[in-house]
Structures are given as C-alpha cells and as structure tokens.
Amino acid sequence: MIIKRKKLSLWERLYLPAMLGGFKVTVRHFFKKKVTMQYPEERWVVPEGYRGAPYLVKDQEGRTKCVSCQLCEFVCPPKAIRITPPGPTGVPGAGNVEKAPAEFEINMLRCIFCGFCQEVCPEEAIFLMQDYSLTGTGRDGMIYDKDKLLALGGVHNDQTRKWNRKAEEARAQGVKP
To answer: Coil, helix or strand for 120?
Structure first.
C-alpha cells in the first residue's frame, strides 16, 4: 500500500518558524513562577490518599498485631514481603496472639507502594505511612526487618482489642488462656 504524502509549503519547509515557536514556549516558561523546592529546608506536603511505605504496628500492650496469615506476602506483586511463621510451638510471651511472626521482612527496594498489603490485612497490622524519603547506606539497609518495621510503625490504638476479649471470655469460662 502506497500512501501519498502531502507536499510541504514553503513556510512549513523553513526552519525559522519552528525555531520561533520553540522560542515562544521558552519565553512563556521564563516568566512563570518557579516551582523548584529547596528539599532539606522545604518539605513536600503529602496529599490525602498518598501511599507511602508499609510498616507494622503494635497493639496497646506492645504486641505485634500480625498473626502470620501471610495474605500480604501472597498479594504483594513484586514479592517484597517475606514472613516466617512461628511454627507449632508459637512465640513465647506473645500473649493470646496465637501466631505472631518469627520473622517479617519488607524489601523496600522492591516495594512499589501499591497498598495491597494494607487492604488485605485482616488484623490491621500493616499501615502505609506518610513518608516519601526512604534512605539507606546500602542494599542491606533497605531490607526492613520486624523490629525496624515495628519501631517505625508505632502503636495503633484499636477500639476492638480482639486479643483481650478472647482472654476475658476464656477467664469467664474458667479456662486458662
């Protein structure tokens, strides 16, 4: 199939009109207000709905809210989350939380901040924080383990207090929790 091309006029063939059009754009941007931000001194205001880095949270008693269901690990598109369940013996000192994870890692270099892990978590143990400047001295520094994730996530005040309710029900029935 042969396509006939329209011949360019003299004005279209000249280089000067195209150059003047580009100069016009340059002049227009030259007089606009500058949007450059001086980063360390000026901080970006995070908009509502921003999905930052995922972190683990603790309940009011300082226990990890994660129960090693591994849904976040399975739903993570880049496979940035790795969870090791505690095994059949559980974690001593975890209270009534049956399956607190033995290991929990998020590789922040792989994480795409999609928010799927927060959406799928049935225990509300993962939250996306409003930070945007993740730094590390090397690749190993960007793999956040359970302790670092809990330190950054902090305590989430939950109204439900699910694990306390189970302990109270067990005590009411005369069963040792």
So the answer is: helix
- Rounded Cα distance between 83 and 87, Å, is 12
**Tokens (6 digits) for 91:** 């974690």
In our burial notation (b when 16+ CB lie closer than 10 A, e otherwise), range 74-95 reads: eebeeebbbbebbeeeebeebb
- Assess contact for 77 and 112: CB atoms under 8 A: yes
Q: What ranges do the domains of the chain cover?
A: 54-172
CATH code for 54-172?
3.30.70.3270
DSSP state of 42: S
Query: Residue 119 in 3-state DSSP?
Result: helix
Cβ neighbors of 77 (< 8 A, separation 6 or more) are 112, 114, 116
Model pLDDT for residues 93-141, shown as the tens digit of each residue: 555 556 788 899 999 999 999 999 999 999 889 999 888 788 889 999 9
Beta-strand runs (E) in 7-132:
54-56, 81-84, 103-107, 126-128
